[in-house]
């Protein structure tokens, strides 16, 4: 896969999500140079200071607010969730990726425009204030909008692999949690996983299959024998059928 091919795939997916109504807005990816490799990522990621993402407290409202207010995403879904899609390519081979799903911390009301970032932020602050009062018994009962939701981030970083950090891994709940994955994901692996498990209505909508069933490519297996003996993410190799 060349950098241009990777950029085209992410861009095509972003545009498909926007046209289908799944996404409220998108930031089409760009290609940047990072030493010996090319990084395909969303535009705002190219200008941020080194180490910003690792410095932000993982799975917090602070992290979500900064990401949405600074356009740190490829797609903003209609429920306020963010998708971060980034790939590293060296010599036409995938050498890294960041596929992140960051759900909105609050249940967005039907009809709310998630493009109103200021309104979304005010809604979040109001909900936090309500929850604090509710704990003390100082507010009238109402349906809580605040949700305890963890981001999911699938990282592939073979150059940083170690005994405690599998080359391909997923972060859930805690930044120190690096659950082994059998190998790097393709874009289709990630998109199908997200929609099948967190958006069943869209997954079962046949008119959206061109987005939710984004094509899956065969990927290399990088998991070690030691990692394989623990609970981890595993999937079958893609079966390609050729019609003669």
- Number of separate domains: 1
| Poorly predicted runs | none
Q: How many strands appear in the DSSP assignment?
A: 9
How helical, in percent, are the residues?
25-40%
The topology string of helices and strands comes to: HEEEHHEEEHEEEHHHH
Mean pLDDT: 89
Give the N-terminus to C-terminus distance in angstroms.
Answer: 25 Å
Radius of gyration: 19 Å
Q: Structural class per helix/strand content? A: alpha+beta
- Counting DSSP H or I runs of 4 or more residues, the number of helices is 8
Outline type: globular
Taken as a percent bin, the fraction of beta residues is: 15-25%
Please describe what this structure looks like:
The chain has 244 residues and is an alpha+beta fold. The protein has one domain (3-105, 147-228). The protein is 30% helix and 20% strand. It has helices at residues 3-20, 52-55, 61-69, 117-135, 187-198, 200-203, 209-212, 225-228, and strands at residues 23-26, 30-34, 37-41, 75-77, 82-90, 93-102, 152-156, 168-172, 179-180. Strands 1, 2, 3, 4, 5, 6, 7, 8 and 9 form a nine-stranded antiparallel sheet that branches. The longest helix is centred in the middle third of the chain and has 19 residues, at 117-135. It starts with a helix and ends in a 16-residue tail after the last helix. The model has no long low-confidence stretch (mean pLDDT 89).
């Amino acid at each position: 896969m060349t950098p241009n091919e990777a950029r085209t795939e992410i861009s095509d997916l972003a545009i498909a999500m926007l046209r289908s109504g799944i996404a409220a807005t998108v930031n089409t990816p760009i290609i940047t140079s990072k030493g010996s490799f090319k990084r395909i990522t969303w535009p705002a990621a190219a200008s941020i200071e080194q180490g910003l993402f690792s410095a932000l407290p993982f799975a917090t409202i602070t992290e979500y607010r900064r990401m949405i207010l600074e356009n740190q995403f490829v797609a903003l879904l209609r429920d306020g969730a963010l998708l971060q899609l980034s790939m590293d390519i060296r010599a036409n081979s995938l050498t890294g990726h960041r596929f992140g799903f960051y759900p909105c911390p609050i249940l967005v009301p039907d009809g709310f425009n998630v493009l109103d970032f200021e309104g979304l932020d005010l809604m979040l602050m109001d909900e936090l204030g309500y929850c604090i009062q509710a704990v003390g018994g100082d507010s009238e009962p109402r349906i809580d909008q605040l949700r305890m939701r963890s981001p999911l981030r699938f990282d592939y970083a073979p150059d940083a692999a170690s005994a405690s950090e599998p080359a391909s891994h997923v972060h859930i709940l805690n930044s120190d949690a690096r659950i082994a994955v059998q190998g790097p994901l393709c874009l289709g692996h990630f998109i199908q996983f997200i929609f099948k498990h967190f958006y069943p209505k869209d997954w079962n909508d046949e008119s959206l299959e061109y987005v939710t069933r984004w094509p899956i490519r065969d990927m290399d297996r990088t998991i070690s024998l030691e990692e394989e003996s623990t609970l981890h993410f595993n999937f079958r190799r893609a079966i390609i059928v050729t019609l003669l």
